[in-house]
Predict the structure of C-type cytochrome.
Amino acid sequence: MKLLSLLLFLPVLQACAPSGTDAATGEHVFKQCASCHQVGANARAGFGPQLNGLFGRRAGAAPDFAYSEAMKASGIVWDERSLAAFVRDPGKLVPGTRMRFWGIGDENEIKALQAYLRTFQDIH
């Protein structure tokens, strides 16, 4: 009976979960980032750096945020590959980072997040 209940409830769970790789889905994924990061015309650093113009930016280089030494020394220039690796497991890519985040394991969510952040690429 429990299995039947779970099988009946599964479509409801799937309907609530983001499923695409587009910017609209990425906006939904970004909500888990938004408690620390901002994007948009009025974005400012808070608990984490603002993420406007992220792609092509050197890690630890936003002028209005105090980064960890590990992040500043990482040598990372943000692109799709480095961002995907970081949001999967921040501490693995940058040991000593102060970012406290469990990671995103779903590749579609990562692609959607990247698409969303791309919409803020020209805002600095």
